[in-house]
C-alpha cells in the first residue's frame, strides 16, 4: 500500500474517533465546515441553473448573433469554457476549494488527446475551464440528465457507447484538428490508487497519430469521490492540483510492427504507470 493510501486511511480513522467537548477553536472549525457544505450546495445549484441557461439561452442567442461560418458545437464549447472558468473562480472566492496548476501551456499547443485520472466529481468541469476547445467523452446517462443534456448536445460531446464507435468518433475529431478529453478509468477513481485503464484511449492515439497530453489531477484532502455523498466534506478546504505533463506520441511508446491489440495494451500500461508514479510520490 502506498504512503498516500496509508495517510488517507489514518485520516479516515481519525474522523471516526470520538471527539472531546468542543473548544472555541473546535466550534470555529465546525462553523467553517458548515460554511463549506452550504457553499458546495450553492455551487451545485448554480451549476444546474447555469447549465440550463447556457444551453437554452446563451448558446442559441450567440449563434444567431455571430457572423460567418461558426460551427454551433465549437461555439458552445467556447461558452462552456468561459462559464466553467467563472464557476471555478466563484468556488475559490467563497472558499469551497483552492486550485493550482502546472504546465497548462501544453493544452494550448495544438490538437491533443488529453488523458486524465478521475479522482472527483468535478474533474471535467475544472479541466474544461482551461480549454477553449475540447470535445469530451461523456457517459450516455448525461443525455437524459435535465441539468446536463442541453449542454452535451449543444457542444457535440461524444457518448461512451460501443468501443469501436467511440474510438472512431474520437479519432475523427482529432484528425479534424480538434482536442479530445478522455478519462481512461471510465469512472471515478477508488479511494486509493487507480482503476484499470481502458484500451480505447490507446487505440484512439494509435489510429489518429495525435499528441497525447497527460493531466494528473489531485485533490487533497480527498472529496467528492465515487460513492461519497457531496456533503461528506473534509475538515479543511480541498485543494485541486492539475499537473500537465509533456506531450508524447503513441509511435514513441511502442514499436511500429506490433499488432494493434498488443500496442494498445502496452500504451495503456505505460500510461497507467505514469499516473501511478506521480500520484504515489507527489511528482508534478
Structure in words:
The protein has 9 helices and 8 strands. Strands 1, 2, 3, 4, 5, 6, 7 and 8 form an 8-stranded mixed sheet that branches. The radius of gyration is 20 Å and the shape is globular. The longest helix has 42 residues. The protein is an alpha/beta fold.
> How far apart are the first and last residues' alpha carbons, in Å?
21 Å
Number of strands: 8
**Helix count, per DSSP?**
9
Please provide the ordered H/E string of secondary-structure elements. Answer: HHHEEHEHEHEHEEEHH
The unreliable regions are 14-22
Q: Please, what is the average pLDDT?
A: 87
The portion of residues assigned to helices is 40-55%
Structural class: alpha/beta
Q: Main beta sheet, described?
A: 8 strands, mixed
Task: Tell me the strand percentage band.
Answer: 5-15%
**Computed Rg:** 20 Å
What shape does the CA trace take? globular
Indicate the topology.
Elements: H1 3-16, H2 24-65, H3 72-93, E1 97-102, E2 112-116, H4 123-128, E3 135-138, H5 149-154, E4 158-159, H6 163-175, E5 180-182, H7 200-208, E6 211-220, E7 238-244, E8 248-249, H8 250-253, H9 260-281
Parallel strand pairs: 1-7, 2-5, 2-6, 3-4, 3-5
Antiparallel strand pairs: 6-7, 6-8
Helix pairs in contact: 2-3, 6-7, 7-9
Question: What keyword list fits this structure?
Answer:
alpha/beta, single chain, 284 residues, 14% strand
Q: Short description, anyone?
A:
The chain is of the alpha/beta class and 284 residues long. Helices cover 49% and strands 14% of the residues.
